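User: Hi! Is it possible to get a structure for several chains at once, not just one? Here's what I have:
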Amino acid sequence: MEGAGGEVGAGTGADHPRLALDAVTRRFAGELAVEELSLEIAAGEVVCLLGPSGCGKTTTLRIAAGVERQDSGAVRVAGRVMSEGARHAPPEQRAVGLIFQDLALFPHLTALENVAFGLRALAAPARRARATRELARVDLGFAADRYPHQLSGGEQQRVALARAMAPEPGVLLMDEPFASLDQRLRDAVRDQALRLLKEDGAGVLLVTHDPEEALRMADRIALMRAGRIVQCATPQEVYRRPVDRQAAAFFTDLNVFEARVVDGAVSTPFGPIPAPHLTDGVAAEVAVRPHDVAVNARSPTDPSHLATARVSRARFLGARILVEARLEAGGALLQAEHISEDGVAAPRPGDEARLSIRPENCHVFAAKP
Ligand code: ATP
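Assistant: Yes, the chains can be modeled jointly so their relative placement is included. Here is the combined structure:
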């Protein structure tokens, strides 16, 4: 740490968020990478920083870790100021665990030695005991004496997890930690990591550009765009009540209708969709996710929001069929889904189909000028 010895700020940590970023800003060569970003993570909470490439996720994480320095704003861990103004505690003084995509296990150390590496404060027997226990928690007790090159990708990632968790940090910072694993392995390692992280009660900040990963892992998703958090809420909230069309589009494809607001509603080929939050006369966009457009559902829940269409493509995905269909009225091409039901024929190209939506699954935004 720069400045005087040891004291990095007041606070016992008990009532404070595990990690707090306060109006953090970082520029590179004059360009904003992170702008006035504020975020708090409670004990036991997993927050995912989610956003497209280049939006500032990794820079935010590096600032939290102390490997990058913000131009302004503050970083606190358990209420203690780690970085603000001239004060800047280096990573090793922050009691944070780090896991990055390129996990950087030490190739010349065994799995057990890798895990023990972060426990240098302990005497040798205690260190070995703790490292052994942490390896067992990730089901790798059998691999204690193997070197990284003798481990599979998933096993290496679990060693990295054990190594990061062994010192029992209050905060874990993870940057795309599962990206290098194939799908099946990713799900298994992710689920195990989540279970262990919850057991330990650390605050977790996890960077990902994968919306499914964020939905699966996060207690809260902080959706980032161009250096800012545009929405921070539970996965359900971010998915079901996106702040704008781009936020909605980050999770799935969208069908979009454009129209003006008249008498508090927007008219669509499916009928009027309420838009009480928009003023009359405003240009609006109504977005509806493909899986919220049902094809030939036997009992559409809202018979007042139906439209007839002609199927142009049908892609079989097991229990679901992804359908592209052109509306008879207006001719717009929509993406929709058919869910298999006993006694209901699967839609095929050329068929006439009945599409149905529910107004509450529609997202109405003011059109951007
Ligand atoms: P990705 O998902 O591709 O990793 P990201 O959201 O993590 O992207 P950052 O790596 O934080 O984005 O980068 C944010 C912006 O800052 C980008 O425009 C990037 O080019 C720029 N940037 C990051 N690090 C530096 C650096 N050391 N020097 C100059 N520009 C940088």
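The first strand starts at residue 19 and ends at 28. Residues 28, 33, 51, 53-59, 209 surround adenosine-5'-triphosphate (CB under 6 Å).

User: Great, thank you!
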